Amino acid sequence: MQKKLVKIKPKKSLGQNFLIDKNILKKISNIANITNQNTIVEIGPGKGNLTEFLLMRNPSKLFVIEKDEKLSIFLQNKFKKRIIILNRDILEFEDSDIFTHKTFVFGNLPYNISSQILLKFIINQNNFKYEKLIFMFQKELAERIIAKVNSKHYGRLSIISGWKFDIKKIIDIKPNCFQPKPKVESSLLIFENKKNYDKSFNPANLEKITRIFFNQKRKKIKKPLNLIFKNNLEILKKLNLNQDLRPQNLKPETFFKITKEFEKLI
Ligand code: SAM
Q1: Mean model confidence pLDDT for the chain
Q2: Rounded to 5 degrees, what are φ and ψ at 125?
Q3: Which of 45, 87, 100, 232 is deepest in the core (most CB within 10 A)?
Q4: What pTM was computed for the model?
Q5: CA 263, CA 149: separation in Å to the nearest integer?
Q6: Ligand 1: which of 8, 14, 55, 115 to mutate, judged by most atoms within 8 Å of the beta carbon?
Q7: Superfamily, domain 2-193
Q8: Is it the case that residue 1 has pLDDT exceeding 50?
């Protein structure tokens, strides 16, 4: 019987820019020290270009989560039983069973939802376990994630990601390594869980607090503090803060303290 060919036309709405540079694909698959004890989850495998390289590392299991039904059928034909295909939307994905502390999560992420995906793995950290995240972002977003206090790109994502992870930038990747070519450069980041980090508050509240502050990025901190706390002057005093500072001047630890004060109210 002749096999039916599935024609794949990249969908812009799903951020489908497929990585085609074999050297980069190999480099990504070799980043983490994967053994046959580890499970891999790949988010948005596309046509399986990275999946092929990840399989060469012989993980105990390889799950892929792909929203596009056509691509899921394509992957089924290509890999048969060598991988487990979940034709689902990662943002609605709830099955935490496939994630264990020995899981490596890879993804050349769809750019329009990449920060939401990263936040999902941080905020749901008690359900979604993993050893490392290896994610590709638009270069500009990657810069925001790794930015330090008092710098231009510092903000919500730097504070929340830096709370839980040690983050390393591995490489920048040029548009011509993809098909179709995106307009901007990409960067690959690796996220490792910190051994010690402050677990005394809920990261969803840290997200809430930093969102309020950085929505008013240019305003002095008095304004967002006023929105959150009735006793904002007391909080300023208690945390020893100068009300003329702006959100970009506050260290991550200060946002942790503000989150804890906020949690006393709820
Ligand atoms: N990993 C492939 C590669 O590097 O060639 C494809 C990467 S492409 C940038 C992003 C992939 O994520 C596409 O395959 C797209 O269909 C998939 N995708 C987009 N939104 C998704 C979602 N909400 N849940 C799961 N997959 C999604």
Answers
A1: 95
A2: -60, -25
A3: 45
A4: 0.95
A5: 24
A6: 14
A7: Vaccinia Virus protein VP39 (3.40.50.150)
A8: no
Give the whole-angstrom CA distance, residue 136 versus residue 121: 15
Which pLDDT score, from 0 to 100, does residue 3 have? Answer: 52
Substitution candidate for ligand 1 out of 24, 25, 108 with most atoms within 8 A of CB: 108
What is residue 30's predicted lDDT score, i.e. its pLDDT?
95
pLDDT band at 241 (very low <50, low <70, confident <90, very high): very high
Q: Which superfamily does 203-263 belong to?
A: rRNA adenine dimethylase, C-terminal domain (1.10.8.100)
Q: Where in the chain is the domain with CATH 3.40.50.150?
A: 2-193
Q: Where in the chain is the domain with CATH 1.10.8.100?
A: 203-263
What is the CA 184 to chain-centroid distance, rounded?
18
How does pLDDT run across 214-235, given as a tens digit for each residue? Answer: 998 888 999 999 999 998 899 9
| Residue 169 alpha carbon to ligand 1 centre in Å | 21
Q: What residues flank ligand 1, with Cβ below 6 Å? A: 14-19, 43-46, 49-50, 65-68, 71, 89-91, 108, 110, 113
What distances in angstroms separate CA 149 from CA 10, 35, 155, one per listed residue?
38, 37, 8
C-alpha 49 – ligand 1 centre gap (Å): 12
- Model pLDDT, residue 8: 81
Q: Angle at Cα 135 formed by Cα 133 and Cα 136, nearest 5°?
A: 170
Is there a contact between 221 and 243 (Cβ–Cβ < 8 Å)?
yes
pLDDT at 183 over 60: yes
Mutate to test the pocket of ligand 1, among 18, 29, 54, 171 (most ligand atoms within 8 A of CB): 18
* Separation of alpha carbons 146 and 158, rounded Å: 6
